[in-house]
Amino acid sequence: MATKKVTASTTAATLVTTPKHKKTVIKSLQIDNQSAALRVIRIQDIFTPDVSNGVASPTEQTIERVYVSIPANTLRVLTKDELEGVMCLGTVKAIADAIAATCAITAGYDFE
Amino acid sequence: MFEQTVEAQPITVNWKDRIHAPAPGRNNLHFSNAFPGTHKWAQGKFFKVVSGIVVDYARSYTIPGSDYKDIDLSNGTSGIKLYPENEGHVHEILVSMKKGDYGIIPYIPSGKYLATLPESTMTPDPSDATKKYINFKKPEDSPVDNPTIRLWAIKDMQPWVLRIMTLEGTDYEKATLEFKINRLKLEEIKRPDVFTEIQWHEELRW
User: Is the ipTM of this complex over 0.90?
Assistant: First the structure.
């Protein structure tokens, strides 16, 4: 399992770039919010679909896969069981409700 | 007295045991008489495999749920180019699917489904909830570790088209098809005792 850490930001930060012929399975999510306020963290799955019968000109999609709120001075860990079924097709990014350098988001993942 | 009963172990035949190759492998082929005259070099003739090589290839497509996309396997402009470029060559193409909420329906040529049910209305129809899954092959039907779907292709043959269909209830799915293209070089021979019959696709519609 690989891991990647980013800090909370209102600009989506890349956690994983999913290879072409794989899907990303998020196995763990650790959010250590040492900032002074509650933080809301969203995990986004960003990709552009292929042309299909129903969509002749596909546009980039941003699908929210996980939504977590973490109180101040709290470490929250989502395990494999809690993340069961969370699978991403494209670029996996973390975005927060505020910039907080002391709020660290670490994702553990595998490719399938 | 001592007796220990041991359950019989099933013999698993892997895809590597089923593909064709030069002798001592499965190496004799016959193209049926139903192949059209445009493929005269093959029509009704027997061949042995003199050389073979397996080339792996994969394609992935991210498609919305309840939607479909047709993939042309031929060397045509819109095809993904899995066909041979020379007469005297045949490609034995194994098709497998990674797990996901989708499946495939084979057509040859484009728009003409390979297999249906005998009653005239029972044909694959993606717009009909009761008929969209006729001849629908799921990933578990041909898994990546042991593909069971085999397509034959020769130069300039009509295109095999695989319709990738995603299930309803899925927002988007990434469908990954993995191909093992067994490229075979052939040499014409007299009729052998044992051979694999390659039927023209029209013979499979009855």
Answer: yes
CB contact under 8 A, B63 and A112: no
Identify the burial level of A13 via C-beta atoms within 10 angstroms of its C-beta, where 0-12 means exposed, 13-18 middle and 19 or more buried. Answer: middle
Closest Cβ opposite residue B69 in set A23, A52, A89: A52
Chain B CB within 8 Å of residue A52 CB: yes
φ and ψ of B15, to 5 deg: -60, -30
Q: Are the C-beta atoms of residues B26 and B20 closer than 8 Å to each other?
A: yes
Mean pLDDT confidence for A62-80: 95
Q: Find which of A17, A18, A21, A91 to mutate to test the B interface (most B CBs within 10 Å of its CB).
A: A21
Is B67 in Cβ contact with A50 (below 8 Å)? Answer: no
What is the structure's pLDDT at B178? 98
The verdict on A81 touching B (C-beta cutoff 8 Å) is no
Tokens of B26: 């499965």
Does A23 touch chain B if contact means CB atoms closer than 8 Å?
A: yes
Chain B residues in contact with A22 (beta carbon < 8 A)? 176
The answer to whether B63 contacts A23, with C-beta atoms less than 8 Å apart, is no
Q: Which of B175, B162, B181 is nearest to B71 (CA)?
A: B162
Pairing of strands A2-8, A61-70: unpaired
Report the predicted TM-score, pTM, of the whole model to 2 decimal places.
0.91
Return left, alpha or beta for B165; rule: phi > 0 is left, psi -120 to 50 is alpha, else beta: beta
If pLDDT is split at 50, 70 and 90, which confidence band does B156 have?
Answer: very high
Check pLDDT > 70 for residue B10: no
pLDDT of residue B142: 95
pLDDT tens-place string over residues B50-79:
999 999 999 999 999 999 999 999 999 999
Contact (CB<8Å) B62/A90: yes
Token readout for A85 is 């079924």
